[in-house]
């Protein structure tokens, strides 16, 4: 069932621990270059950090973790690197799915999967099926994903589903067709590697997400670094369009009611 928690239609409940963390895992290439290693060594190390991140989310009770693994623009990279990234993806699925299944993690892959080879698509499908009954942590890998692709595919899907209301569609009509309609919107977005941009990640879903950028390269992004990002999130005042005074009044009346 879809969970609708649209930040533009309803103010989401305040939370100390983010319900959903979305990450652009950037900086693998530079990490390898600094060590005079081939770029792929950075990607290999990057996969290890994914494991740590999953563990950290399980320990902290974070319900949703979404990782940008390959963007729709990453096909522009040298073909050798693209091939190696695909091989790594296959290997990670072969090696990790059973462990995810045992640990209560539900795996999903979002993106335009049609461009992947059949072996990879089959592994994705099997991984999703094998973990479909789990609900401790929803782990979503964005692969050949682009925020614009997502909005467009949702619009096309809605056009098919409700052609009679063309011209009168609402946000609520579109949301169930988006790739992440099963999840609340991200509370916290993290980008490692120093760049301060979205790079066509979750454009619709990040409307009110707290953004955290760190120069730390992804292979160096330890659990301690993750905790810093969460601590930064906990300092933010999330107003969702309201004034700071409104939030203070709300907190005061909440306390009065609790007494
Ligand atoms: C992110 O690291 C991983 C992918 C895009 C697959 P990069 O490969 O972009 O690393 P840098 O940015 O070149 O350091
Ligand atoms: C974004 O990283 C995509 C992933 C991490 C998968 P890039 O390294 O490809 O982003 P740009 O090109 O620097 O914006
Ligand atoms: Mg990069």
Show the helix and strand layout.
Blueprint: E1 20-24, H1 28-34, H2 39-60, E2 64-71, H3 79-102, E3 105-110, H4 118-130, E4 137-145, H5 147-161, H6 171-174, E5 188-191, E6 210-213, H7 223-235, H8 244-258
Parallel strand pairs: 1-2, 1-5, 2-4, 3-4, 5-6
This protein binds 3-methylbut-3-enyl trihydrogen diphosphate (2 copies) and magnesium ion.
Please tell me about this protein's structure.
With 259 residues, the protein is of the alpha/beta class. It contains eight helices and six strands; from the N terminus they run E-H-H-E-H-E-H-E-H-H-E-E-H-H. The chain has helices at 28-34, 39-60, 79-102, 118-130, 147-161, 171-174, 223-235, 244-258; strands at residues 20-24, 64-71, 105-110, 137-145, 188-191, 210-213. The chain has a six-stranded parallel sheet, with helices on both faces. The chain is globular and about 60 Å long. The model has no long low-confidence stretch (mean pLDDT 95). Bound molecules: 3-methylbut-3-enyl trihydrogen diphosphate (2 copies) and magnesium ion (MG). Magnesium ion (MG) binds next to loops. One 3-methylbut-3-enyl trihydrogen diphosphate binds next to helix 1.
């Amino acid at each position: 069932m879809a969970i609708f928690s649209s930040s533009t239609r309803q103010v989401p409940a305040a939370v100390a621990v983010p319900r959903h963390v979305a990450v652009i895992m950037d900086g693998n290439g530079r990490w390898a270059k600094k060590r005079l290693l081939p770029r792929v060594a950075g990607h290999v190390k990057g996969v290890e950090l994914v494991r740590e991140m999953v563990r950290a989310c399980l320990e902290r009770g974070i319900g949703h973790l979404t990782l940008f693994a390959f963007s729709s623009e990453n096909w522009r990279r040298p073909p050798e690197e693209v091939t190696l990234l695909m091989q790594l993806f296959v290997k990670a699925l072969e090696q990790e799915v059973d462990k995810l299944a045992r640990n209560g993690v539900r795996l999903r892959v979002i993106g335009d999967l049609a461009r992947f080879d059949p072996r990879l698509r089959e592994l994705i499908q099997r991984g999703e099926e094998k973990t479909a009954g789990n609900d401790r942590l929803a782990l979503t890998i964005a692969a050949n994903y682009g925020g614009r692709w997502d909005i467009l595919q949702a619009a096309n899907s809605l056009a098919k589903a409700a052609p009679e209301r063309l011209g009168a569609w609402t946000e609520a009509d579109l949301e169930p067709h988006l790739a992440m309609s099963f999840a609340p919107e991200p509370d916290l977005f993290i980008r490692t590697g120093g760049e301060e941009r979205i790079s066509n990640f979750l454009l619709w879903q990040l409307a009110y997400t707290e953004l955290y950028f760190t120069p730390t390269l992804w292979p160096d992004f330890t659990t301690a670094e993750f905790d810093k990002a969460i601590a930064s999130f906990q300092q933010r005042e999330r107003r969702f369009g309201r004034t700071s005074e409104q939030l203070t009044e709300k907190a005061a009346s909440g306390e009065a009611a609790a007494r």
